[in-house]
Amino acid sequence: MSEKPSVPMGTFLAYFLRLGTLGFGGPIALAGAMHRDLVETRGWITEEDYQEGLTLAQVSPGPLAAQLAIYLGYVRAGILGANLVGLAFILPSFLMVLGLAALYLRFGGLHWMQAVFYGVGAAVIGLIIRSAFKLAKSTLKRDPLAWGIFAVVGLATAITGREWVLLVIGGGLLFWIVKTRPWRNGTVTLSLTPTFWLTGLHGPAALATVGGIFLFFAKAGLFVFGSGLAIVPFLHGTVVSEFHWLTEQQFLDAVAVAMITPGPVVITVAFIGYLVAGPLGAGAAALGVFLPVLVVVIIAAPLLRRYGQRPGLKALVQGITAGAAGAIAGSVVVLGRGAVRDLPTAIVAISTLLLVWKTKVPEPVLVVMAALAGGLLFHG
Fold it and tell me: pTM of this prediction?
């Protein structure tokens, strides 16, 4: 165990508050900023602790950047540090999404709001394509089995328009079995109010609905590996098709909101929760999706330090990640049906993909550009 840094806790928290307020670019960019700022520049975190945190974030459920930040808080001040850093990192984007959701609920029927999301929804498709490619390239490499799992889950998601959690888990188990051949050792072991606060798109919601939102997003949070966009296909089938909480366009708008705000992309769940059951719904959704992250850091971190390099666990995680990457790729087709609906939106989506692929223009800038284009092109 490395020695804890001596930086004052208030200063440490101020850094994560600033990162949560101004940190754009997705999980990889945010994780890179933490390494640059905390390890290389300030020396507040040791390289060893950072790498352990990054490993935990990669092999455990939860959005990568948020989980890494919470782990570094744990390194600095134990359970209290984990909670405080998590709050400082997540709160700014949560408050921004809360404000945007309130505006959306109040003015969503106005022409300008429809025009903005007309362009932004199409741009999101281009960004998701790029994210799916980057995730697949970095995790699947040249492994034929991983690519096979990726293809099967991707096709299943694209064709049915639903999340296939059991298929993703099955991919992880298949990868574990093929890569480790557990039978060789003779045993098989696997480490494993007031009305305003509840008012959403469909009017006041019941308190039971808030409880249902919390439980649903807590379950969904268990299947977010790496990028926060991994949660998109898991949410889509249930939120749109099964529960009918949101329409296809409203779901795309929720993803778009996450793209134009700093901090963790998975904060899109707060927008969804707000539209379903007002501010309490937003809080329940955010608490549900981030609670597994906190639990993993506090409970599972010591186990990972001891067993994380075992081939069986690494193989299981790699298989699950391949399935999650496939689900993200499949979700491009599902979401694209609603977002790319005519020639202008097709041009916006393709242009966004080309710009994010060939240039270093930040994603939030691309989303703002798409919003402006939507305002000019929208005729609904």
Answer: 0.64
